[in-house]
Specification:
Blueprint: H1 2-9, H2 19-22, H3 31-47, H4 55-63, H5 69-73, H6 97-110, E1 118-125, H7 140-144, H8 147-157, H9 167-170, H10 173-180, E2 182-186, H11 188-191, E3 200-206, E4 211-216, H12 230-241, H13 244-259, H14 263-275
Parallel strand pairs: 1-2
Antiparallel strand pairs: 1-3, 3-4
Helix pairs in contact: 1-3, 6-8, 8-10, 12-13, 13-14
């Protein structure tokens, strides 16, 4: 049944260019929704007794890349893939997070950076991140997928939260001027560290000849590198929800999900939290 579900799911995969995200198109937000629906549909179709058609070999092995069959069962029953992820510290594409952490280190040392104080800025990273070099941000999404924007907004404000991508920040002249002084390039040494490490190096060349270099091996929050503590996760929830009691309740309900025999009841309470005070439910 599992094999049939996986095989069927591969026929429902999206094949869309990454430019959808870097251009700031809102359709990118529908990807995860489509994946969830496809997973449910695949399981339902498999239960109907659909015969295996070896679709995965063509869709994943020809149309969308190379299929490594052994990876489908690697660690099965012993490792949970979700335990290898991380909680996002910044409200932007994960590939921007190492440069963002480096920019925070510069801000911690220098405070707010004025464009007039900077000669140029160079960000070096792996091939997955080096394409995120856009300097045009017509939408929030476009800014979230731009390393120049993320680094510049942090150098100016010391943070990269949801509000950092509003229209006021995207139209900020000094953020734009800092971003315009920035180049993003591929570094072969950092690229070779993939997939174990998603490293980035930030070089700031100051007016007067001084240089600041910060290299980040992996983003803060990475489960294998610098996982966020329970207190840090709660603080992040408070910053997003705006109410500590509400944040504590959400955390408690999430813990209940792991043990509950009736997840529908717990999810209903989570939904009530989302509806409270006008929070938007996705």
């Amino acid at each position: 049944m599992v094999a049939a579900s996986i095989d069927t799911a591969t026929a429902l995969a999206l094949a869309t260019p990454f430019k959808v995200a870097t251009a700031g198109m809102a359709v990118r937000n529908a990807w995860i929704g489509h994946a969830n629906v496809a997973g449910i549909q695949a399981a339902a179709l498999a239960q109907e007794g659909e015969p295996l058609g070896a679709i995965a070999g063509e869709s994943l092995g020809q149309l969308l890349g190379v299929l490594s069959v052994e990876e489908l069962t690697a660690g099965l029953g012993g490792e949970l893939a979700i335990s290898g992820g991380y909680f996002k510290r910044h409200a932007s594409c994960s590939y921007t997070h190492p440069p963002a952490d480096a920019a925070l280190a510069v801000y911690a040392e220098r405070g707010r950076v004025e464009p007039e104080a900077v000669e140029s800025i160079k960000v070096e990273s792996h091939h997955l991140a080096s394409a995120l070099r856009g300097c045009n941000w017509p939408t929030r999404m476009a800014a979230m997928f731009s390393i120049p924007y993320v680094v510049a907004v942090i150098l100016r404000t010391g943070e990269c939260g949801p509000e950092s991508f509003d229209e006021t920040h995207r139209r900020d002249e000094k953020i734009a001027r800092l971003a315009a002084k920035m180049t993003v390039s591929l570094d072969s040494e950092l690229d070779a560290k993939l997939p174990a490490h998603r490293a980035a190096r930030l070089r700031v060349f100051w007016v007067g000849g001084e240089e600041t270099v910060v290299e980040v091996e992996n983003p803060i929050g990475d489960a294998d590198f610098h996982p966020l503590s329970d207190d840090a996760l709660l603080d992040k929830s408070v910053s997003l929800l705006g109410d500590r009691n509400e944040a504590v309740l959400v955390h408690q309900l999430c813990e209940e999900l792991l043990q509950s025999r009736d997840v529908a009841a717990v999810l209903a309470q989570l939904r009530n939290c989302a509806l409270k005070d006008g929070h938007r439910v996705g």
